């Protein structure tokens, strides 16, 4: 198979799971051509992401003249198909002038990728995220290009499914992929019943070989603090703003705890202010973004991962923590319950409940070291069985091949 992958911004630190999926497909002999609208080369720190940048064709780098020329070319060569794609772009753009203008730009991007897909002999296009990448591949299909599929991650797509024309994108796709059963249920809310059979679950995955036997845990209570790590973008949905208050509550209850925050983002200033306001600056370390080796090291130096998210898809960081033999404190939302088994691999707490989060921290601190180790091993066995990237990529390849053969 020769297929194209299309994304908005790629590579980037927060989507390394897509890189792993692409490379797993290539290990199966699938030829994958990467398209991205753009990439923040300056923001890449992981050598693997930097290498992936060199393999990715940046659509907008072609320039406005090239995109306009490709658009006019299709208008002249396939006028009927172009009219249909233009109507679809206008409809998906909604009633706002800004939305319609944005979708006309997507149409120009689609015209360019349609030409490139023809030159490269691509049989199918797969997009990640149900936002503009899915819009572009849907318009490519309208323009007479290859069939398409797309992976929906959430939570963004489920925040505004109608504004994103999610039902129309699912209806035109040969295959729509959800990364969890929860995600599939949310797609079923908005998709037509006739389209349900073409919605499948393919998990994001990890590379088991990158997770050898878990590192020994550092000394913990009563010989040292409970060491927690939280990994992710500093954005509203991740809920890191709850952590300083939860730590302050836990400390008032006698818990000796230290938190390492790995990541960065727009909310860093607010998070730093909350740390200061709750007087926990001596117990919190901020590392900024780390490469994959750095993330694994941060996990190995912890007793447990804490993830206080308000909204999620199926968090890769939870998989990585479990694969590294660490228990997880997470909120009871979205795909988290499909990963974390309360009392066996970690604890689930209500989202937005700072008291419950503090209690989860207290429970982790009061858990005997040998029990934490057993919970970590149970989590490791669960995630290695359910989220092997080569197994999941094989499933995705089979599903795509079936659509090509239909």
What does this structure look like?
Pfam families: Glyco_trans_1_4, Glyco_transf_4. This is Glycosyltransferase family 4 protein. Residues 16-210 form the Glycosyltransferase subfamily 4-like N-terminal domain. It comes from Paracoccus marinaquae. Strand 2, helix 2 (47-53) and strand 3 form a beta-alpha-beta unit. By secondary structure, the protein is α/β, with parallel strands linked by helices. It has helices at 16-27, 47-53, 64-77, 79-92, 97-120, 132-142, 156-159, 166-172, 181-190, 242-252, 268-277, 292-300, 316-323, 336-339, 354-366, 369-386, 389-405, and strands spanning 2-9, 31-38, 56-58, 124-128, 147-152, 175-178, 199-201, 226-231, 257-262, 284-288, 304-307, 327-331, 346-349. Helix 1 (16-27) packs across helix 17 (389-405), helix 3 (64-77) crosses helix 4 (79-92) and helix 13 packs across helix 16 (369-386). The chain has two domains: 2-205 and 388-405, 3-Layer(aba) Sandwich (Rossmann fold); 208-386, Rossmann fold (3-Layer(aba) Sandwich), CATH 3.40.50.
The chain-level structural class is alpha/beta
The percent of residues in helical segments reads 40-55%
Low-confidence runs of at least 5 consecutive residues: none
For the CA atoms, what is the radius of gyration? 22 Å
Under the CATH scheme, the architecture of the largest domain is 3-Layer(aba) Sandwich
Question: In the residues, how many domains can be counted?
Answer: 2
CATH superfamily of the largest domain: Glycogen Phosphorylase B
